[in-house]
Amino acid sequence: MTVSLFARAISLLSKREYSEHELRKKLAPYSTDDPALLEEVIQRLKEHHWQSDKRFINDYITNKSTRWGTRKILYELEKHQIDDETLSELKETLKETEFERAYEVWKKKFKDTLPETPQEWAKQARFLASRGFSQDVIIKILKP
């Protein structure tokens, strides 16, 4: 069973990066008879650097930062049970580029067309807010 669970974990990690929490959830159904076995497999993966939360975070941010704001990225990483200290460091890093990212998302969707009516302004603001961009950034972008 150890080889089977370990092989399953390696197979998952060969396709993409997983957070420790996500990997535990994926492997849990296969280790019902011995929960200690799952811990052993996770430890072995970490010792050999086959699973790394830091690598997962970097990969996740690279994939999502072109479309999402800081708030949404951090919210999604919280679901993966990334520790608060790491999240606060990431928040500062992501905040530095949030305006540029939000502007690119807005420009792609609305083609540099500033809102002319309150309804258009609300529509564009809702769009950016749904992507997780902060209110301050939204106001700067939509300011005439």
From TrEMBL:
<comment type="function">
    <text>Modulates RecA activity.</text>
</comment>
<protein>
    <recommendedName>
        <fullName>Regulatory protein RecX</fullName>
    </recommendedName>
</protein>
<dbReference type="InterPro" id="IPR053925">
    <property type="entry name" value="RecX_HTH_3rd"/>
</dbReference>
<dbReference type="Pfam" id="PF21981">
    <property type="entry name" value="RecX_HTH3"/>
</dbReference>
<dbReference type="InterPro" id="IPR036388">
    <property type="entry name" value="WH-like_DNA-bd_sf"/>
</dbReference>
<keyword id="KW-0963">Cytoplasm</keyword>
<dbReference type="GO" id="GO:0006282">
    <property type="term" value="P:regulation of DNA repair"/>
</dbReference>
<dbReference type="GO" id="GO:0005737">
    <property type="term" value="C:cytoplasm"/>
</dbReference>
<feature type="domain" description="RecX third three-helical">
    <location>
        <begin position="96"/>
        <end position="142"/>
    </location>
</feature>
<comment type="similarity">
    <text>Belongs to the RecX family.</text>
</comment>
<dbReference type="InterPro" id="IPR003783">
    <property type="entry name" value="Regulatory_RecX"/>
</dbReference>
